[in-house]
Amino acid sequence: MTDNTAQTPSGPVLAADGRPLKASLNRALRAQKIRALLLIAPLLIFILITFIAPIADMLFRSVENQIVRDTLPRTVVALDTWTNTDEAPGEDVYAALYYDIFEAAEFRNHSRVGSRLNYELTGVSSMFRRAGRGVGRFDTDIYTDQFTALDPAWAEYETWTGLMDDDAIRAALPETSDAFDTWIHITIDANDDVPAEEDIEDFVFTALYRDLSNTGYSGSNALLSTAADAVAGFESVSLRDQFADMDEDWLDPTVMETIKVYSPSYTPGYFLTAIDMQLTADGVSAQPEDRRIYVTLFERTLFMSMVIMGSCVLLGYPIAFLLANLPTRVSNLLLILVLLPFWTSLLVRTSAWKVLLQQQGVINDVLVWIGLVADDNRLQLINNQTGTIIAMTHILLPFMILPLYSVMQTIPPTYVRAAKSLGATNWTAFWRVYFPQSVPGIGAGCILVFILSIGYYITPELVGGRTGTFISNRIAYHISSSLNWGLAAALGSILLAVVLLLYWAYDKLVGIDNVKLG
Known about the structure:
Blueprint: H1 21-61, H2 66-71, H3 73-79, H4 91-106, H5 110-118, H6 124-134, H7 141-150, H8 157-164, H9 167-172, H10 174-190, H11 202-214, H12 222-230, H13 239-246, H14 253-261, H15 269-274, E1 277-280, E2 283-286, H16 294-325, H17 328-339, H18 346-357, H19 362-369, H20 385-408, H21 413-421, H22 426-454, H23 458-463, H24 471-480, H25 485-509
Antiparallel strand pairs: 1-2
Helix pairs in contact: 1-25, 3-4, 4-6, 5-6, 7-11, 10-11, 16-17, 16-20, 16-22, 18-20, 20-22, 21-22, 24-25
């Protein structure tokens, strides 16, 4: 009997080119994804360079603190064993500070670390500047004179290179070998000189005296053995006293405590300062009451941004409604008036408000003229929160009107007419039919206005005075004036986190998908 059942071919299904169909499809999809990626690559690179990279740099700067450890490495190590913070540390710490500041002064880094520590303790910057000038005049030349008087060979460069080429001697004299290496580094890299042609610096002989005095020398080198026996009779100077003579604040334990606390390469100190806290040797504590300003500025920024956003909604909604329901020729003309502020400099518009709002300005003059305000009791509308709210509402109002107008244009007028034909009053038809359809425009306008206002700093700076400035004004101050970029980055990071948090809350409550621009 013949089997008429169709025979199915065995093995994978092949494409036209003879390859397995599945592999051929995967290859085609992979090529399609690569082409799509290449098309959007320029945009991705642009976003990475102009948006992601600056934010990443800001986040890094808000915790980066390597300048203290890199500039004062010996001092940081010496302070690790300092536990009694009620009194200044001992001679070893000041010897390490002496070497560090001498090296930093040669490379012009001492003022930078002073400026960094000055953010945490006022007055430290001037101390480091004076120290940079003064360490070269310390009385440590007394060691140079005594060693060279003991044996003139100590003044020869070849003597030192011979000693430092011996690993056993370097291990026996760690402070000296480090000081000699530092002197070589300074001579070549900072001064562009030849070490063999220069005199050995006094701080190298100081290190040699300290090594021989503290640990002695038990090796076979005759020159070092002689010096080790002789240093007991050397006249000595206290580096601790040398710093005190230069500036008595160097004996203030708070100064050394500040160096120790801010010695790690990464620190939460900037973020703590941004929320009116501080990092101390005992842990985290509140800032002194007269320095607690940032939490107040954050609260003020959020409150005033909300008020500005609300005032823009109240003023912008009727204008957008009018534009959307007038004849096209009239609405286009009025829309030009709405856009007109964009053609005027922001600085000019803000300066104009200073003229209008001042006590002898146009608005007060009009109020006095019509009798609403007494001439001796003019309103204070400038250099306060009122002035900031008025000026920023005017500046940001178009950003509320345009999204509202674009959304309102898409609302069919027949809906309202249908509601009225069914017996609804004008108010009911507006509130129950028209307004819900305009909510996406309100959401878009509120997001635009709020995010723009929370980061504004030009207008608050000009009309805000003491009580009307935003946190952005303080960020700008630290970037351009105090040069405390770490604190500015921390404040900016917190501001970014607050905006993202509010954006997330808005998405949960309203839904970002309901936001439309028309």
